[in-house]
């Protein structure tokens, strides 16, 4: 039976590829013979018949160009295929040409052929060949007499797969050291192939093929992305876009951080939104921080060195870290080390909590004590550390090479690092380079714990004294590490070149860096103010070419970073893209001037349409917001927050969710504004975000803000609950009063909502201006969700749960009952 199912899948994939791939006889924009100079890069070399794709010269750096294919509607011209991605040509004198012999070739300024289709090699001169760009994005050199392709870009992908482009055992997607390919066991995998070490990291290497939901019994080795946003592979890999459906331009790309993502093109803005990703945690990719390096998400990517280790190259984290002390006691040709019973120990161990290094184990032993595991590593000259997990079986993993390291609050074990006896655990030399981070107000401290006090397994007799000593040491180390972190972050260190190159790659595809003079001119000296909030004022601007944008001038006390830190944080914002988030087009960072350039959302913010005209002033809609639009806005906002919290891989907490930060398009699609600005807030002494600094707007702030407890994503859930209730009632919750004229308190609000839920009488709560024109089932669901959002934070639902609940009622009639 299983064989029939697998065979059926292979047949389905083959049929799908035949149905989706257009016939080679389809009319395309075709050239029989032509050439183009790089100086004419502003115009394309070819455009597909339906105008979806263009090909020509793309800027790849200062005076450097590639010959590439891109989506015409993408204003940033993100390449989906490049002939010479790794060997850009000069911006002067280079030329692409299609000869009468049927060869497509790219020549550099000195006439050297950098790349060619090799369509004449070994066949003599071939006359009558043409080059065309298909509506699928496939660049084809074909023979019109036979209708066959002699060469096609679909068979030579770079880092991107397009719909209808078959991915086979002969093809591979590559980005830096990372690649997607079919392995010899017929499984689709992602590989880190670095200068020293190579390792597979997707699907999860700790699980079997079948535990990962794959099969290796189908040798066809074929995968394809269809037009509806479904990616299928013969090994049973299946991925679906969150915006599943026809009519959307999509691509799958492997990127410089090792993740494989599916993108959808927003036809109105030309921006890309991530609609699926292979890795839910960035540190699952291998090699990001190099040998002896630790990858951590806090919630942005951070690389750091182990205690007592330092960066090999301060410009490139991929080269990892090196010890500042001799490691091990091995020497070639020497005798085995003396028995520990007769020789004093030369090393000790310190604990690095909630940390592990994947792979490179010197062995694996179960059901042993901590002391036995420690002794195994102590007596093995090749062992540099060991991992011990006391989960009922006492698992021991001695490590020879420390690679693919990560630290996570969810990891149940620790690494015990072998260091010399004279190693000073109270002041380890820790190197840390933070990438851009997005967090709400809580200061997150990485605690690296010295555990040289351990002599036997934790929990053994006589060890409790050591634990009390450990607690005292921990308090001292906290102070030392905070001071070390402050020194490092405040020192003038440049961004590592490898990271900067990655940042620039993101910025090239997503951003434009503006000068202050440009934005001052685009806004007519900041003349037309669209709105103002705690983070700064927003102005209407018009860029060269006529594009209307919104320019946010950040307040001086909102961002205090230097240009480099601001640059790195903006790259994180640039990776965040969703249909329900306001798109960021660029930024400016010149000394005290910090500005963000957003897409212009023409229908203003939700508060101007939802509340009474007396509250908002001029420019407000005088028409009552229809129920279908209210529900659409609620669902869109929920989806946007769910993306920020769960899908965008940056774990962004908004911190100031309110109607003013929900912008509306002409069709009343919701777009969340001002996400990510929490990380740009003023720092306390440079050591981290001030714990006592409350963010948000009165009336929408969760109770825990006043309790000085660590902040998490549930503050946004609370704020969304308030906004959701306001969408139902049509007025500010903070403006509601008791009969005595006192403002309603949270317990009174939740009590009233429980009464509505218990009685089923939602009519009395819904905005009277709707005159009964609403869907009672949708309204009741919104009230239930709002009530759940106001519970104790541990009881609140996630935004992902909320989005799913609202989606379940999305296809109902606008108002099947309660007519006026």
UniProtKB/TrEMBL annotation:
EC number: 2.7.11.1
Any one annotated GO CC term: membrane
Membrane disposition: Single-pass type I membrane protein
Binding site for ATP: 552
Residue ranges occupied by any Protein kinase domain in the UniProt entry: 524-818
Subcellular location per the Swiss-Prot or TrEMBL entry: Membrane
Source species, domain of life: Eukaryota
Protein name: Receptor-like serine/threonine-protein kinase
CDD domains per UniProt: B_lectin (cd00028), EGF (cd00053), PAN_AP_plant (cd01098)
SUPFAM superfamilies, per the entry: alpha-D-mannose-specific plant lectins (SSF51110), Protein kinase-like (PK-like) (SSF56112)
